[in-house]
Amino acid sequence: MASVHTAPKSVPGPLAVSPKVKSLCFALMALGVAAFVFTLFTDKERAWHAYLTGYFYVFVLAIGGLFFASIQHIAKAGWSVNVRRFSEALTAYLPVAFVGGLILLFGLHSLYEWTHTEVVQADPILTHKAPYLNTTFFIIRMVLFFALWMLFQRKMVGASVKQDQSGADQLTHTQVPWSIAFLMVFALSFSLFSVDLLMSLQPHWFSTIYGVYCFAGLFQSTMAFMILMILWCKKQGLLEGYVTEDHLHDLGKFMFAFTVFWAYIAYSQYMLMWYANMPEETMFYLPRLAGGWMWVSIVLLLFKFIVPFLALLSRRSKRNPAMLATIAVLILIMQYVDIYWLIYPNLTEERVVLGIPEVLIWLGFMGSFLFVVTRFLSQHPVVPIRDPRIEESLHHHVVY
User: Comparing C-alpha atoms, which of 81, 87, 88 is closest to residue 244?
Assistant: First the structure.
């Protein structure tokens, strides 16, 4: 049976961000910066590994928001109009992520062995990969990718917020070709960006679906973060009559689907390498299946796939705000564990290093991300109220 929809009581405006929330964001940023600087002096390599982990975590949320918005425009989806602004808010972090990427350049020597000339010259494999894995080309790719991503963000999100004032239907239609172009650019650029930042930490190893693996975590965590932001705004009464349990149900289905997809890609990558048993492939998994890293791998399997899968399996759970919020928080935590699992064995294979520096640096990135996202929502209505497809979203029903 479809749920009963109440008529909107008022036009939703921007989000009112309390001083407490702003203070919390600044406090988290200050703690993150302090922890990073302190760790730089005590353990430089650990500091940059923690920085890369936190940086990639917030970056995928930002680019994930643009991906979600683009597929809605391409599908000409009406149901998602009332939740699309939250995905657009995530993209506001892309310029900050670009600055964070430039800062990361100072840590290349501490992260990537292919930046050491003497190491490359003594290694035939790295010498063969040098035309791609070199500092100059790395910087060129990073600048080019961010230039493209921010161009699409400006064109797509810019048109959406402009429509809040003009109400021109044409602005909705112009986003379709931009979205199609973005998806084609995104498929290649995000895959290469994942290879550059993460896979090249272990340059002798490679996987042809590494970018897909990172994408699966991207979309799963993006849905989780959007659900939490929407529930927070609903609690403040901003979305009454605009976002119902039917919208949450569909977002929950996305989160459930990519929970399964992440597990499928992870299994596909592992199974093929385990079956082939080739040294150049198994070198990635061997340290992650021994000692303390084995427990991290088990935790990842249990709490990024099995628990969310079982919890979101029923229709009722995807329509339960408390259940959705709980699983969304779990997925966001496990997204950090996943990125940490990809990065940190390259710092130390013998033991698991996870302490106050890692937590505080990650919280610093989260503070900056929350500040930028909430600032965007405080400057624009939380619902694109003049989108021509909003009536479809207002009367959205899920019957399956």
Answer: 81
Neighbouring C-beta atoms of residue 96, cutoff 10 Å: 17
What separation in angstroms does the CA of 72 have from each of 160, 175, 234? 12, 10, 22
Contact, 5 vs 393, CB < 8 A? no
287-to-197, 217, 269, 271, 349 alpha-carbon distances in Å: 20, 22, 16, 16, 6
Closest listed residue to residue 225, CA positions, set 255, 257, 259, 270: 255
Structure tokens, 384: 């694109």
Q: Which residue has the tokens 């100072």?
A: 106
Alpha carbons 288 and 266: distance in angstroms, whole number: 13
pTM of the model: 0.95
- Taking the C-alpha atoms of residue 171 and residue 277, their distance in angstroms, rounded to an integer, is 53
What digits encode the pLDDT tens for the residues 200-231? 999 999 899 999 999 999 999 999 999 999 99
Residues 296-321 pLDDT 10s:
999 999 999 999 999 999 999 999 99
Q: Is pLDDT of 12 > 90?
A: no
Token reading at 141: 């790719």
User: Which residue, among 271, 258, 388, has the nearest Cα to 334 in the 3D structure?
Assistant: 258
> Which tokens in the block code for residue 170?
């044409």
pLDDT digits (tens, 9 = 90+) for 319-332: 999 999 999 999 99
* C-beta separation of 142 from 196 below 8 A: yes
Q: Can you read off the two tokens belonging to residue 286?
A: 């061997």
Quick one: pLDDT at residue 398?
Answer: 83
Residues 6+ apart with CB under 8 A from 347: 45, 46, 49, 353
Which residues, including other chains, have CB under 8 Å from residue 189's CB and lie 6 or more apart? Answer: 145, 148, 149
Local structure of residue 290 (DSSP, 8 states): S
Split at pLDDT 50, 70, 90, the class of 2 is very low
- The DSSP code sequence of 293-304 is HHHHHHHHHIII
| φ, ψ dihedrals at 141, nearest 5° | -65, -45
Helix and strand element counts for the chain (H, E): 18, 0
Average pLDDT over every residue of 369-377: 97
